[in-house]
Amino acid sequence: MQIVGYMILLVFYLCYFIKMFQQRKQGIQTDHMGKGKQGIQKKIEIMMKGATIATFIIEILSIYLNTTTFPLIIRIMGIFLGIIGDIVFIASVLTMKDSWRVGVSYEEKTDLITDGIYQISRNPAFLGFNLVYLGMCLMFFNTILLIISLLAMIMFHLQIKYVEEPFLKQEFKEQYLQYYQQVNRYIGKRTGFK
């Protein structure tokens, strides 16, 4: 179970950092968390960054200590969620190509990506994070891991709602509004959850 947990995290973060290093080689600044922002947007991005780092540390410790109170079947469900989260995250990063950023950049122009996995989720990278976090909670449950994972997921939601969506509406106008009305925030075609 511990090896599987480490592998799920390794695949996830390898994708994240390999993409970041590839973009850096091309002269693309990937990490824009808290940069060039003020007020609530800056606070959200900084808190989100802190929550993701804290979650990673707690996940590693939870795997190392092999903490859990759940039966094997629940832990196996966690494995599947974690693997699906990896797949969703990798698909989102690959589909974004050179438009992928961590945080919103007001200076760099990117394309609005609406194909591939973005046809069924406006935020598949965050969905991937959430699935990995939920998978880790089921595999290595403890109260601290649950609390910090929920905090990170709440911060992702606030990032989407109060930073990314207003930026995309301003940047891409009608093109984004049409996409916004067709595809849900996390998963599925238009069903009213926006």
Automatic annotation (TrEMBL):
<dbReference type="Pfam" id="PF04191">
    <property type="entry name" value="PEMT"/>
</dbReference>
<keyword id="KW-0472">Membrane</keyword>
<dbReference type="InterPro" id="IPR007318">
    <property type="entry name" value="Phopholipid_MeTrfase"/>
</dbReference>
<keyword id="KW-0812">Transmembrane</keyword>
<feature type="transmembrane region" description="Helical">
    <location>
        <begin position="131"/>
        <end position="158"/>
    </location>
</feature>
<protein>
    <submittedName>
        <fullName>Isoprenylcysteine carboxylmethyltransferase family protein</fullName>
    </submittedName>
</protein>
<feature type="transmembrane region" description="Helical">
    <location>
        <begin position="72"/>
        <end position="94"/>
    </location>
</feature>
<keyword id="KW-1133">Transmembrane helix</keyword>
<feature type="transmembrane region" description="Helical">
    <location>
        <begin position="44"/>
        <end position="66"/>
    </location>
</feature>
<feature type="transmembrane region" description="Helical">
    <location>
        <begin position="6"/>
        <end position="23"/>
    </location>
</feature>
